[in-house]
Amino acid sequence: MVSTGHAAVSCIHRPSSDDSWWTTGNVGEAVPGVLTPLTYTFWATPFERTVRGSYSEMGVISRADGRKVTDNPDDIAMGIVFGRAVLNVRLILSVGAGLPGTNAAEVGANVLGDTAEDINALPPNTPLRYPVVAVRLPILAARLRRRMTQLDAEVTRAWQEVIQADATHATLLLPKIRELFTAAMTAHSHATFLSSAIYEPLAGLVDGRTDVLTDLLSGYGGMVEVGMLHALWEVAHERRTMADWLSRYGYLAPYAGNLRSRSWREDPGPIYRLLAAYRTVAESGAPASVERGRVAARRHAESQLLAGVPTAKRPGIRLLLGLAAYFIPLREVGKNCYLRAVDAARAGIRIVGADLTERGKLADPEDVWFLTWDELLSAYPEDAAAVIGQRRAQHATFETLTIPDLFHGCPDPVPIAAPEAGGTDHEELVLHGLGACGGIVEGRARVIADPTLDYDGLEPGEILVAAATDPSWTTLFVGAAAVVTDLGGALSHGAIVARELGLPCVTNVKTGTAVIRTGDLVRVDGSSGTVTRLARER
Q1: What domain range is 266 assigned to?
Q2: What global pTM score does this model have?
Q3: pLDDT tens across 414-433, in order?
């Protein structure tokens, strides 16, 4: 173990008291890896405003509480420990306590990927807020799609503008881009929590049967990621140009929420390397064809469900199914909207960083990531070189460490271990997680820790094993036989896209990337939520 005393409190290490619980769940998917000061300080205040503002708009908390923005490490929505972003568990779970039809434990399982069994004193339900929620939520829900459409158009215009800007104009645009990012995150938050509130009643209707639930919660048609995948399939089959594809989807990047990552707009090399794998996919297996099959499966599952209940209950169930079809796709629209805003900020920051280097204020354009947001825009440090040097050193140390996915206070970090060696050819191991998409598949594992280093696509029949996935990882789903992630819940990004593509999926297995090696023979059972290693790599 590494003593927590060896890490100085800084802008990327701000531990709380022992009373506060934290998780890497969900946020590890949104903004992965060890963050630089600029990435964290870009995210922190918007995230605070998003969580509290979203809760207030839904009526879960008062408008006064929704306007509060704190910098207290115990109370902030997104903390940072050893360079890794973490979520304030009690604050996130309080939405489950305030929404009728769900509770804190269910939100923990579906949104964060944790059952919250290890957390004492879960937030109690707050039924006094239910009448307020009953008034505000229908209005918010009815306006959400239009709100997202308008936001997406605004974010796209800002993205297109900043890419062409000089340093002076980019500096002026960055505050506006951050405001758009906050608005997009808030809309995404609404869709996320409303999807969670719908999930549990639907699961109850089918007694939690993952195979039936898979069909009911997919096949919506027009999903953003499926459109992206099919467009890339068209590029591979010379039905669309790469330039057109990048103009639509070039804002995405491996670890897209991390500002320092290079987007496909900047480096399309990984996408070009995928084309060979996509050329092997026949039209019958193209994403659009798979999507049509999933739509048919959903309609059949809905008909079967309705036929099996009394006539009097059917209107309520139809309403529930309609709400799922409305909110779950919107969650992904919101996610892609805020990630486009992230890339707009990324573009502006790189332009400003290059200018600061040209003017001799930075030694290297990459040094810009070790400034904070305020330092970049208004309070540039006099001793910038020394400050950046110290922050770089701490960041490099944190990249050698990992932390638990659920903890309170300040955890003891653990050195990142080298891949496990040894083992016998028949060393069986069973991992338990959350069954997110039904089906049983056996195949060889492809463990991908960094898609920037392993972006040649999967061999047919391989099973993708990753810590978490964001929209950029979706390009690896085509050709995969199944998906396994260390983090995530039933409504995490990887789970939603896996269902749309009909891929067996198990999330929240915790240690899959640590104990499974590329080439291991594994069985994925998306119905039971188990991943079994049958034999070691050949």
Answers
A1: 199-319
A2: 0.89
A3: 998 755 544 444 567 999 99
